[in-house]
Specification:
There is one protein chain. The chain has 11 helices and 7 strands. The protein is an alpha/beta fold and about 300 residues long. It folds into 2 domains: about 5-55, no CATH class; about 90-305, 3-Layer(aba) Sandwich (Rossmann fold), CATH 3.40.50.300.
């Protein structure tokens, strides 16, 4: 009823085989193969039937190779990995980053540092989180319609950062500039992890990011930071308050719970990512002096000073 000539792989090319008889022959041919292929190896049925010779593959060896490959890929990451040396840089500039929960005082301190450096004539560039014009409109529409899931929110921020990194951060670092960043990838590691995104997935997502020369972590007690935000804003925004997580029907309480999660995630990164921890509760002028002293001790600011024309 189903006559067909299977020219390839049959012992007698041109002979008529039914699908059932061909299946029996194919199965026997597979079982009689002198060597077996690993389940992870890509092989077509035609190659089996034509008697392709295979190299025996041990499953354990395959797993070991995959693990070694994964380890080698991780070692290429530009981000600090626990237990591994920090990769060398390939640019002459320097990157200073501030991190911390909302209300920790980081933006104020970075602005003061920026003004101090600008007055001194140093070559610098300022960038802030979620500021790429390429992504901002999409993020705004998603927030307005409340369509953002933790994953889509994370990917939008990653796209925003990738655009700024490619167009601003890396070109200026390669051009021997001092780059100041108000929030960096650690904001994503903290916020997105607090929303339930896997930490390993987030690290891999941002693995192209250059390592900061200094990462200031402004740490303020939860109540202090939350009160600073609430007292300065008439109403908390939906995603800002973490209302998408269903932590509480009250926005203020939801914001407090969400910030508590973020604070915990930041604290986990202090050692692994070499944060310079500063107390966000001390007076502004004293905190700024500490910040300037640390910058001067860790970065050779003379490299970014205005170039004086040589006397003729």
């Amino acid at each position: 009823m189903y006559p067909r000539s299977y020219a390839h792989g049959s012992p007698h090319p041109g002979k008529i085989y039914t699908p059932i008889s061909f299946f029996r022959f194919s199965t026997a041919r597979l079982l009689q193969s002198s060597s077996s292929a690993c389940c992870n190896e890509y092989v077509t049925i035609r190659e089996y039937l034509l008697g392709r010779s295979f190299v025996p593959t041990n499953v354990t060896d395959t797993q070991d190779t995959a693990q070694k490959s994964a380890r080698s890929e991780a070692s290429k990451s530009t981000l600090p990995q626990p237990g591994r040396p920090v990769p060398s840089r390939a640019y002459p500039g320097a990157l200073i980053v501030v991190e911390g929960t909302d209300g920790s005082g980081k933006s104020t301190q970075l602005y003061l540092l920026k003004r101090w450096l600008e007055i001194g004539g140093y070559r610098l560039h300022f960038t802030e989180w979620n500021s790429s014009p390429l992504v901002k409109s999409a993020t705004r529409r998603g927030k307005q319609r409340r369509l953002l899931t933790p994953t889509t929110f994370s990917l939008l921020h990653a796209a925003d950062f990738a655009d700024r990194c490619e167009r601003q951060i890396m070109p200026l670092l390669q051009g021997d500039y001092l780059v100041l960043a108000d929030r960096y990838i650690y904001t994503a590691f903290a916020r997105d992890a607090a929303r339930g995104c896997p930490a390993r997935w987030l690290r891999n997502l941002y693995r192209f990011a250059p390592i900061p020369d200094i990462t200031f972590y402004f740490r303020a007690p939860l109540d202090v930071a939350v009160n600073r935000i609430i007292s300065g804003r008439p109403k908390l925004k939906y995603y800002e308050a973490g209302m998408d997580l269903g932590l509480s029907y009250d926005r203020t309480e939801s914001f407090r719970l969400f910030q508590s999660r973020i604070l915990d995630e930041y604290d986990k990164m202090v050692d692994s990512d070499n944060f310079v921890v500063l107390d966000g509760t001390i007076p502004v002028n004293k905190l700024q002096k500490q910040m300037r002293d640390i910058v001067a001790s860790k970065i050779d600011l003379k490299r970014f000073a205005p170039r004086v024309a040589e006397a003729e």
